Amino acid sequence: MKQFISVHDVTDINALVKKALAYKANPLTDKNLGVNKRIGLLFLNPSLRTRLSTQVAAQNLGMEAIVFNVDKEGWALEFEEGAIMSGNKAEHIKDAAPVLGSYFDILCIRTFPSLKNREDDYSELYISQFIKYCGVPVISLESATLHPLQSLTDIITMTEHAPAHKPKVVLTWAPHVKTLPQCVANSFAQWVNAWDGKAEFVITHPEDYELSEQFTKGATITHNQDEALKDADFVYVKNWSTFNDYGKIYANDPKWMLTEEKLKLTNNAKVLHCLPVRRNVELSDEVLDSANSIVTQEAANRVWAAQAVISEILQRGE
Ligand code: CP
C-alpha cells in the first residue's frame, strides 16, 4: 500500500480486515516492524479516537509517533498554488510539507472541510497538496470528504458481528445541533459499496440530505426511515449537512433520532456510530446504553485498523 486516502488504496478489503483482527488477537506480533522509523500525526482539527488509536497502533509496531497540532501550535498554512501571501497565512504547504517529509517515514493528516465551498472541499485540495509535496506515504486521519480509517474500523466491527446470512446494513441520518461534514457518511457508503457484495445496503435520510452519488451509487436510498430500518442487522447512525445546497442544516426533525422504539423494527440490529455522539439528539440513552450498541468496541477497533494500514505501508517499504 502506497498511501491510505480512500478505499481505492486497498486491493483486498477482507484481507485487510483479517490482518487487523490478527493484530487484535496479538497486538505485538510485529513489534519490530517499525523500529527506528517515525510517524508524524498532524492535526488541523480536533480528535480523540483518531489521534490516540493511531499513536497506539504505531507504537505496537515499534514506531516512534509524534503528534503535531498544526492548528494550535504551527504556522497558519497556505494551500493555494500561486497565492500572494500577504494575508494571515505564514507558510506555504509547498515549503512546510517537504520539511515534514524529511523528519518522518510516514505522515498522517487530518483536514476537515470548510463546508463553505463544495468545489474546493470535494477537490480535496489540502490533503492532495500535502501528498504532492511531502515525499513520504500519507495516511488520511479524515479529509474533506472521507474518513477511511473510520470506515475500515466499521467493516472490521461488522465482520466481528456478522450474521450467518447476508446482512442488511442501514446508514441513517440523525439530527444534530452543528453543521457537520459528509465525510463519515460518504466514506461508510464508499466502503460498504466496495465490500464485495457482502451486504444489502440502504441509506435513509430526510429530503435535501442526498449525499454525492460518487459514494452512494449501488445503495438503495429512501426518505422513509421506518421502512429502511425494517429487518436491519446493522444500523449506522450519523448526521451530515446538505451536499447539494452545500453545508446547510435544513429540517432537523428530532423524529429521526434512533430510539428503542425504532430499534424494534430491526432484526435486533447492532448499532454503530463513529463518536463523538450527541446523546438524546442523534441516539437515545436507551439505545446507546443497550446491548445493541457496539460503539465502544467500534472505537476500540480503531487501533487495529490503523495498525493494519501502517503495517501495509511499512511492509511495502521493506
Ligand atoms: N471517530 C473519530 O474520528 O473520532 P475523533 O474525531 O475523536 O478522532
UniProtKB/TrEMBL annotation:
Keyword Ribonucleoprotein assigned: no
Binding residue positions for N(2)-succinyl-L-ornithine: E142, H176, K238, R278
Name of the protein: N-succinylornithine carbamoyltransferase
Record's function text: Catalyzes the transfer of the carbamoyl group from carbamoyl phosphate to the delta-amino group of N(2)-succinyl-L-ornithine to produce N(2)-succinyl-L-citrulline. Is essential for arginine biosynthesis.
Enzyme class of the recorded protein, top EC level: transferase
Alphabetized Pfam families for the sequence: OTCace (PF00185), OTCace_N (PF02729)
Record pathway: Amino-acid biosynthesis; L-arginine biosynthesis
Transmembrane segments: none
Subunit structure: Homotrimer.
Family of this protein: Belongs to the aspartate/ornithine carbamoyltransferase superfamily. SOTCase family.
Source taxon at top rank: Bacteria
Positions of the Aspartate/ornithine carbamoyltransferase Asp/Orn-binding domain: 217-311
Organism: Danxiaibacter flavus
Gene transcribed to yield this protein: argF'
Enzyme Commission identifier(s): 2.1.3.11
Keywords per UniProt: Amino-acid biosynthesis, Arginine biosynthesis, Transferase
Reaction(s) the record says it catalyses: N(2)-succinyl-L-ornithine + carbamoyl phosphate = N(2)-succinyl-L-citrulline + phosphate + H(+)
GO MF term list: N-acetylornithine carbamoyltransferase activity
Positions of the Aspartate/ornithine carbamoyltransferase carbamoyl-P binding domain: 2-160
Residues where carbamoyl phosphate binds: S47, L48, R49, T50, W75, R110, H147, P148, L149, Q150, C274, L275, R302
